[in-house]
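I am still getting used to backbone structure tokens and would like to learn alongside you. Label the sequence line and the structure token line clearly, so we can match residues to local backbone shapes. Would you write everything just below, so we can both look at the same thing?
***
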Amino acid sequence: LHGIVFDMVPVCEVAQECIAREGLQSRIRTQVGDMWQDPFPAADLHFYGQIYHDWPVEKCQLLTKKSFESLASGGRIILHEKLLNDEKTGPFAIAAFSIAMLLWTEGEQYSGRELSAMLTEAGFTDIEVKPTWGYWSIVTGRKP
């Protein structure tokens, strides 16, 4: 397994320190980039950890499209988020957090149905929503 941390300069600098401390330089590298402007590095998997909830639907759709375009056939996308139920009525803690997010982000908490629709619209197939722990879930898709 090899990984690329694709992020801004300060994040890559901290990541490089962590990578070196753990002796993983042969398996993990960093690549400075702007997710809105720069092409994504070629990969078999894109993992978004708590990214989508910071952004409105249009920006999430852009990220999803960019992932689809840069992944090889058979590649996967994983979205790791705290999900609202499909009716967007709860759970209470996630709904309350979504309201609080109005103070500091452009985004909101999404439901598994909404994230699945974004993946489908971009062309991903075999979409699954899987609870992981507590309020956390992953939404996954595969590029045909």
